[in-house]
Design goal:
There is one protein chain. By secondary structure, the chain is of the alpha/beta class. It folds into three domains: 79 residues, Orthogonal Bundle (Arc Repressor Mutant, subunit A), CATH 1.10.10.10; 131 residues, Rossmann fold (3-Layer(aba) Sandwich), CATH 3.40.50.2300; 117 residues, 3-Layer(aba) Sandwich (Rossmann fold). Helices cover 36% and strands 21% of the residues. The protein contains twelve helices and 17 strands. α10 links the parallel β13 and β14. α1 crosses α3 and α4 runs parallel beside α12. It is elongated.
């Protein structure tokens, strides 16, 4: 079989023989010597050609099979089943939803990781079952797993790490695991990367930065969706309450910005969802209130449009999150980083 002439086994190398087989097959895929659906040598043929034990060949083929690189067909042999960028570092990037913020993280991750990587982006929509199925389907198929853990309960509330999810994450080799955005204290501490927000303390500290301007308002209203298809961590609520109580500020928590809100001069709104921000700004304009004087607005997480509209934000640095995750993989050095989170003051405050 032609492939055998391309396989190189170095008897003096410290690399295990089974790994040399894996590397040789992957290399021959990358340079075009092996193509999709092409048959590769049988275990017996491989063993006889290179004077290697069947166990060695079987181990190499088993790993290639787990990574979805080869597929056994009963009675026929083994065939190449995956060729796309196989020679590169393969990364599974799991996000809970598509949003402007996730896109910023992902784009900066791609921009920093470089051309020698192949990233598969999968969205699990905060659904535990879908998440577990994706990981089960792709176990052992990737070199690294970058995961943002945000899930919903049956009553549409946020949960970070359901028991089954945590159990599955613990089965991923820690040196292949990057946790982004949301971590659980004292959990998966050996992971290669934990690059995250601290939702409770972040909002508390960011609002504290703007305390002098916030205190000019008579009441602070947080629009926090209690139930949502894409729920938000309740630690945001805890941090907001702690800030208001600490500084003796009158506050109210609403599920959303309602149509025909009762707006009063001296109100300061903090919005999380984009739809709530749009609805609020529209009503402020319709009622001819002066934004930043009569009514204040602080929005959660920054975007170029918010900057253009002069909306004050409290926001994590999504660019840093994406770039740091990529650097962690490139350097192969453990990184545990709480990403900067700040108040960015604009006209709306």
């Amino acid at each position: 079989m032609d492939l055998l002439k391309y396989i190189k086994i170095d008897e003096n190398s410290r690399i295990p023989k089974y790994q040399q087989i894996i590397d040789s097959i992957i290399y021959n895929i990358s340079v075009g010597n092996l193509t999709m659906d092409q048959k590769i040598p049988s275990i017996n043929m491989f063993s006889e050609e290179f004077y290697l034990s069947r166990d060695t060949i079987e181990k190499a083929y088993s790993i290639l099979k787990e990574r979805n690189i080869i597929t056994p067909i009963r009675g026929k042999g083994y065939y190449i089943s995956r060729t796309k960028l196989i020679s590169k570092v393969n990364i599974l990037f799991l996000v809970n939803k598509l949003s402007n913020y996730k896109s910023i993280i992902y784009n900066h991750f791609i921009g920093s990781i470089g051309p020698n990587s192949h990233i598969d982006l999968q969205v699990y929509h905060c659904d535990e079952t879908l998440f577990l199925n994706l990981l089960e389907k792709n176990k052992s198929a990737y070199d690294y797993y970058v995961i943002m853990p945000h899930f919903q309960t049956k009553d549409l509330k946020h949960i970070s790490y359901p028991d089954k999810v945590l159990s599955v994450l613990k089965k991923i080799p820690l040196d292949k695991l990057i946790i982004l955005d949301n971590v659980k204290p004292n959990t998966l501490d050996g992971a290669l990367g934990k690059i995250h927000q601290d939702f409770e303390n972040d909002i508390y500290d960011a609002l504290s930065q703007g305390l002098n301007r916030i205190k000019k308002y008579e009441k602070i209203i947080l629009a926090f969706p209690e139930k949502s298809i894409y729920p938000y961590p309740k630690r945001i609520l805890h941090g907001f309450r702690k800030f208001c109580v600490k500084h003796n500020l009158d506050f109210e928590i609403l599920d959303k910005i309602y149509d025909d809100m009762v707006l009063k001069k001296g109100d300061l709104f903090i919005t999380i969802r984009e739809t709530d921000l749009v609805n609020l700004v529209k009503q402020v304009r319709e009622n001819e209130y002066l934004l930043g004087t009569d009514i204040g607005i602080i929005s959660y997480n920054d975007t170029p449009l918010k900057e253009l509209l002069g909306i004050t934000v409290i926001s994590t640095d999504f660019k840093v999150m994406g770039e740091t995750a990529a650097k962690t993989i490139i350097d192969k050095k453990k990184c545990h980083l709480k990403v900067p989170f700040n108040l960015i003051e604009r006209e709306s405050l």
